[in-house]
Write a structure and sequence with these properties.
This protein is α/β, with parallel strands linked by helices. The protein is about 30% helix and about 15% strand. Strands 8-9-1-10 form a four-stranded mixed beta sheet, with no helix packed on it.
Length: about 350
Amino acid sequence: MPYLNQLREESYYFENIYSAGIHTNNGIVASLYGYPAFFERPMMPTEIIYHTGLPVNLKEQGYETLFFLTGNPNYDNMNQFLLGNGFNRIYSQYDYPKEEVVNNFGVSDQYLFEYGLEILDKTSRTGEPFLATFLTVSNHPPLIIPEKFKEKGRSDQESILSYVDSTIEYFIENAKKKDWFENTLFILVGDHGKIIGEQPYEMSLTYNHAPLLFYSSEIQKNPRKFDQTGLQIDIYPSIMELLNISYTNNSLGESLFSHERPFGYFVSDTHVGCLDKELFYTYNPHTKDERLYHYKENSREDLLETYPEKAKEMKKYAVSMLITSDHIIQKGLSGSKE
């Protein structure tokens, strides 16, 4: 992915960011509203949970709020949830020509960006600022690889990433030609990672690893690489700090630019994980099984008895965060303006 690698060198690049969970609905709610995931519980249920997050805060500031996705807007109840939580307009397969649909996930990323750029041009001409979120999906099976990219990799997985890289290049390079580019902040993050290679632990670290980029014409002049441990839920308050907008933070996110977490925490469907820059703790709340590993050395040795206090501290941090988040949501406080 040569373009993404180039962009990384021109951005605020956070290499140690972890997704809230391993599903798309987890990533959307974490990135936009600052809430962690709860194992297999859907984060966008049919009974709408209200959040004061990025779309709500920016809408209150006069921003037009737009969400673009390639396919069915009712997948994961996105349409109902997002419209109820700050988005003015959802663009989906119902807005695109039928001939542009390539698989059951809808249109290609390339078409999504082509269509989106036109909408952003129209929106910018109103003189109002905008928040636009794009959910891309071309690297999700079933893979539809354009002919000219089929020889770009040693496997279909590599070839599709080459294609995805080209769509990101298309979007950013065409955005640079727009009047609104100089006043726009671009954020790139995965909804979650992917299981890659042999997995030595109960949780796949690659499944929750989701590096993060902040890019703009101003950031390009003074790029930085950040190595602190951070979370997807930190994106929302980080954006608000960069925009210098006053807001009430009802989420569990913290700005990556003014806070540093002692640990990162995240979930799969069965486990909760917690890590610092060297140790990785895993816990299964159903079986009560817990382990501690030196993941930076790729060690499979369980260090639970070697560092019992460290394991206890990590468990307390991760579990208390999840319990607190659950309490806030269940009490209806995530949408409070107090």
